[in-house]
Design brief:
Helix content: 40-55%
Strand content: 15-25%
Number of strands: 9
Number of helices: 10
Radius of gyration: 20 Å
Shape: globular
Length: 281
């Protein structure tokens, strides 16, 4: 049986995913390093100049430059030939790959999503709640359409995705508040921007048993998601993205039914190898 440090939902997971931790004081230099790497990662393919980074972080330019040069030396940050533009480095990729390779829940989810993809030929995801966002850890793409932003490592606001809403619906009160920003910024015209309306939608998720993203994250797509309850509260979920052009009530029922069976398989797999935490399922 897994120890509390092994399962999502505990203090170790909170520290890894950016949620609030208690009783630990930040080390300023380490915090600055993390903030800088996260800022560069969030820019994706848009390199930044020293001035942009120092201003965004509220850091003296000389301190920011020294930190950047250290991170460049060790491969966490890359720079162009002129040495004036900075982006995330290859060491970040290697660290992220190690995370995926060693996460036991990812290993359980991959074959289940592959089986769903083979059967239904839609795009399926496995994601994890990280603060106010959901991070995509596994993607099994449909052969019928390609989504350029459907990739491992993608981070999106939890309130705008089926994956995120499936996990937010598992929370209530202060726990839920910790994962919601003060302002709900729209990604599309269908994104919930009113907190009361979002809370009503989460109540419907609990009653229905699965979450629905109705073009709230991407126009032309509906998504369906179920939480994985091998930890309490659930931190992981699976989802399916379907173009509206071929979505019917019968197809929705078929997809959700298949996903429920896949969830059972994943959760039973977690039980069989001792990965269920106290209070889970």
């Amino acid at each position: 049986m897994a120890t509390p440090a092994d399962v999502p939902g505990d203090d170790a997971r909170k520290a890894a995913t950016g949620e609030k931790a208690t009783g630990v004081r930040d080390v300023k230099s380490a915090a600055r390093t993390v903030e800088l790497l996260e800022l560069l990662a969030a820019r994706q393919n848009r390199p930044a100049r020293l001035r942009e980074l120092s201003e965004a972080l509220g850091m003296p330019r000389s301190s920011c430059y020294a930190l950047l040069r250290t991170l460049v030396k060790y491969g966490w940050v890359r720079t162009d030939a002129s040495g004036t533009m900075y982006g995330i480095g290859i060491r970040a990729l290697l660290a992220g790959t190690t995370y995926l390779d060693t996460d036991p829940y990812v290993r359980l989810a991959k074959p289940a999503l592959d089986a769903l993809g083979e059967r239904l030929d839609e795009t399926f995801h496995f994601g994890r709640l990280a603060g106010g966002d959901v991070v995509y850890l596994v993607t099994r793409a449909s052969s019928q359409y390609l989504r350029p932003h459907s990739r491992v490592g993608r981070r999106l606001p939890a309130y705008s995705t089926a994956l995120g809403k499936a996990l937010l619906a598992e929370l209530d009160g202060p726990e839920l508040d910790e994962h919601l920003p003060e302002q709900l910024t729209p990604l599309t015209e269908h994104t919930f921007t009113d907190r009361a309306a979002l809370l009503r939608d989460l109540a419907e998720v609990r009653e229905r048993g699965y979450a629905i993203d109705r073009q709230e994250n991407s126009l032309g797509l509906h998504c369906f998601s179920l939480p994985l309850r091998y930890a309490s509260p659930a931190a992981d979920a699976i989802s399916c993205s379907v173009p509206l052009a071929r979505l019917t009530p019968a197809r929705e029922a078929e997809i959700v039914g298949a996903m429920r069976a896949a969830r059972d398989t994943i959760e039973q797999g977690a039980v069989s190898i001792g990965l269920v935490g106290s209070g889970g399922m």
